[in-house]
Design goal:
Helix content is 50%, strand content 13%. With 210 residues, it is an alpha/beta fold. It has one domain: Rossmann fold (3-Layer(aba) Sandwich), CATH 3.40.50.300. The chain has a six-stranded parallel beta sheet, sandwiched between helices.
Length: 210
C-alpha cells in the first residue's frame, strides 16, 4: 500500500462513511470517523443557523482536533494504514459557508493556531455527486435534523470544497459519485482501490464509476 493516511471527503450525503468503512475493511486499516452525533448543537443549528452556527463549528473543530491528535500520538503496530472520513480543513470550509464575516475571522484564527499540529493525509478521495443525488441519500438515511437542508446550502458547500481542492493543488482522487453504490456494486469499490494503487503527482485525478 502506497499511502499511510487516506482521507475520504465529500458533501453531506455523498457516501463518505460508507466508503471509509469498506476501504478500512479491505486494507485492514485503522479508521477515524466523524462523531457528528455527539455534537449537542447540530440539530439546533439546522433549526436556527444564525444562532448556533458558531458553537456547532467550534464543537466540531475541537472534536476533530482531539481525534486526529490522538492518531498522531498513538501508533498501531498491526495497522499501518489509517483512513478517515473527514479532512480537518473541513472545519474551515463549513465555517466559511455558515459564519458571518467577523465570526469567521475569529474562527480562522483559532484554526490557524492548531491545524499545523496535525498530519495532512497522503491522498484525498473526494466524492462528487449532484445535489439531487445528495438529497436522495439524505432522505434515505433519515436523520431527522437533515431533512430540510436546502439545495442552495449543498451547492455552496460543493463549490467551497472544489475551490479549496483546486486552489491548493491537493493530491486528490476525484470520484464522480453520481451513480455510486459502493456496497451493492463491487466494481465501484474496485475503481477506488485501483486508483489508490497508482502513482500520482499532486493535483486532481478524475475517475467515473461503471
Amino acid at each position: 500500500m502506497k499511502h499511510h493516511f487516506i482521507t475520504v471527503e465529500g458533501n453531506i450525503g455523498a457516501g463518505k462513511t460508507t466508503l471509509t468503512h469498506l476501504l478500512a475493511k479491505h486494507y485492514n486499516a485503522r479508521i477515524i470517523l466523524e462523531e457528528f452525533a455527539d455534537n449537542p448543537f447540530l440539530s439546533k443549528f439546522y433549526e436556527n443557523p444564525n444562532q448556533y452556527a458558531f458553537p456547532v463549528e467550534l464543537f466540531f473543530m475541537a472534536e476533530r482536533y482531539k481525534q486526529l491528535k490522538d492518531m498522531v500520538n498513538t501508533r498501531d503496530l498491526f495497522q499501518s494504514v489509517t483512513i478517515s472520513d473527514y479532512l480537518f480543513t473541513k472545519c474551515l470550509l463549513f465555517a466559511k459557508v455558515n459564519l458571518p464575516e467577523e465570526e469567521f475571522r475569529l474562527y480562522q484564527q483559532l484554526f490557524d493556531i492548531i491545524h499545523h499540529q496535525l498530519v495532512f493525509p497522503d491522498v484525498l478521495i473526494y466524492l462528487h455527486a449532484p445535489v439531487t443525488k445528495l438529497q436522495e441519500n439524505i432522505k434515505k438515511r433519515n436523520r431527522m435534523y437533515e431533512q430540510k437542508i436546502p439545495d442552495e446550502y449543498l451547492y455552496n458547500l460543493q463549490e467551497t470544497y472544489t475551490s479549496y481542492i483546486k486552489q491548493h493543488n491537493i493530491k486528490t482522487i476525484f470520484i464522480d459519485a453520481s451513480n455510486a453504490d459502493f456496497i451493492g456494486n463491487e466494481k465501484h469499490l474496485q475503481v477506488v482501490i485501483d486508483a489508490l494503487e497508482k502513482d500520482f503527482d499532486s493535483g486532481q485525478h478524475y475517475f467515473s464509476l461503471p
